[in-house]
């Protein structure tokens, strides 16, 4: 690529489709890397870019909690145009972004950061049936919680658990329905899933496992959830069964998609000049020897930063394992990486206590970590996973030994 002194980098500017974490990080990265050309963010919602993680935690409890990602003064100072209520239809080669109103926005580079939509169950809709994906969803759910005595949540993953936690803090009776034998069993395995189940039950949640749901419908004075064990009645229901990647724009553009937009390790899609990042991106990832689509804040940030630098000609890739966290029932949960069912699990501390860290071992190396109320250990463990270090089991499991030993050993 020519240097800035020869030919301007990305002379027609960068257009970012979407208004979430990836959009904000990409815009900030471009400016931090001294890109001076036009940056335009096209968001479909009426709100400026905001964070989604607080929607099921701080913001759900307090509407004054700050969730803004790109304050007006920052975008004004850094000459970033944020446009709300804009729906993009497709991207044409060039690339050119085409909106549903027929507007054509030329660009030198485009970032697809369209995220995802809440997965539904059948035609479950109504004033008393909720999904939590947007700021407006959170506002509506907050109002419902203040007027409810009974809430049923379909899905015991992080979002379902965080909503259950917020509802219990307000004194609402909560029933959580989960089809698997344990919460998050597919990602964490049965033993750690059992730990998550214990957190919910200890806080008074009526957690019903191995319970399939066929329908969620409104009744005359509430909601009815049809399950494999009979009907469950409540004032309101939340369907928290994951998201579906928003690939409509990419598909309409002829960009390759499969469980999201297919991208390489630098975020490039199959269309020249177009990148994708965040929940919508299904990345070819070195850490998993294949593709993975991750729905977490940290991954959205890393992918967006890499994509922005790649647009500017940098030879960078996103190769770090993803990191996630959840605050629920007074407990902080963190994890790094993607454990495989065949990985060996060893535990530092007492898994029955309120603080421990579980390490997953694959071919002698630390492949993933899961921690409860142990931020210091998981911080060090992230480096072990990043480096793919082979660490003696007795060092991992002994709380009296410092994990810095493993890092220092790798440095020598």
Supply the key terms.
five-stranded parallel sheet, Enolase-like, domain 1, FAD/NAD(P)-binding domain, 12 helices, 412 residues, 26 strands, alpha/beta
Give the helix/strand layout.
Blueprint: E1 14-17, H1 21-32, E2 39-42, H2 58-61, H3 72-77, E3 80-83, E4 88-92, E5 96-99, E6 104-106, E7 109-112, E8 116-118, E9 129-130, H4 135-146, E10 150-154, H5 158-169, E11 173-177, H6 185-188, H7 190-202, E12 206-208, E13 213-218, E14 223-227, E15 230-234, E16 236-239, E17 243-245, H8 248-252, E18 261-263, E19 274-276, E20 281-285, E21 290-292, H9 297-311, E22 323-328, E23 331-336, E24 344-349, E25 356-362, E26 365-372, H10 375-387, H11 393-397, H12 404-411
Parallel strand pairs: 1-2, 1-7, 2-3, 7-19, 9-16, 10-11, 10-16, 11-12, 18-20
Antiparallel strand pairs: 4-5, 5-6, 8-17, 13-14, 14-15, 20-21, 22-23, 23-26, 24-25, 25-26
Helix pairs in contact: 1-9
């Amino acid at each position: 690529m020519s240097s800035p002194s020869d030919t301007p980098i990305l002379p027609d500017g960068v257009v970012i489709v979407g208004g979430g974490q990836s959009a904000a990080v990409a815009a900030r990265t471009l400016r931090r890397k001294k890109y001076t050309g036009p940056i335009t963010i096209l968001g479909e919602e009426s709100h400026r870019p905001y964070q989604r993680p607080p929607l099921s935690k701080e913001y759900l409890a307090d509407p004054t909690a700050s969730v803004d990602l790109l304050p007006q003064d920052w975008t004004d100072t850094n000459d970033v145009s944020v446009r709300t209520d804009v729906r993009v239809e497709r991207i044409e080669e060039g690339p050119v972004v085409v909106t549903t109103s027929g507007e054509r926005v030329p660009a030198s580079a485009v970032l697809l950061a369209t995220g995802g939509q809440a997965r539904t169950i059948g035609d479950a809709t109504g004033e008393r049936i909720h999904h939590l994906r947007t700021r407006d969803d959170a506002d509506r759910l907050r109002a419902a919680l203040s007027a409810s005595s009974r809430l049923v949540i379909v899905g015991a993953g992080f979002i379902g658990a965080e909503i259950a936690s917020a509802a219990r803090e307000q004194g609402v009776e909560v029933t959580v329905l989960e089809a698997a034998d344990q919460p998050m069993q597919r990602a964490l395995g049965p033993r750690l899933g059992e730990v998550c189940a214990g957190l919910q039950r200890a806080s008074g949640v009526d957690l019903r496992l191995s319970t399939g749901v066929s329908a969620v419908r409104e009744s005359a004075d509430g909601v009815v959830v049809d399950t494999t064990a009979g009907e469950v009645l409540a004032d309101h229901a939340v369907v928290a069964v994951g998201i579906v990647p928003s690939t409509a724009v990419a598909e309409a553009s002829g960009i390759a998609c499969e469980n999201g937009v297919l991208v390489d390790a630098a975020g490039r899609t199959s269309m020249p000049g177009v990148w994708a990042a965040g929940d919508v991106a299904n990345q070819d990832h070195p850490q998993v020897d294949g593709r993975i689509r991750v729905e977490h804040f940290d991954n959205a940030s890393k992918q967006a930063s890499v994509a922005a630098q790649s647009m500017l000609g940098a030879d960078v890739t996103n190769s770090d394992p993803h990191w996630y966290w959840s605050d629920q029932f007074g407990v902080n949960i963190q994890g790094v990486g993607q454990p495989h069912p065949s990985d060996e699990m060893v535990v530092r501390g007492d898994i029955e206590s309120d603080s421990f860290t579980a390490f997953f071992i694959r071919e002698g190396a630390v492949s993933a970590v899961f921690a409860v109320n142990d931020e210091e250990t998981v911080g060090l463990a992230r480096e072990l996973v990043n480096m793919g270090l082979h660490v003696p089991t007795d060092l991992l499991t002994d709380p009296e030994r410092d994990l810095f030993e493993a890092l220092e050993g790798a440095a020598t």
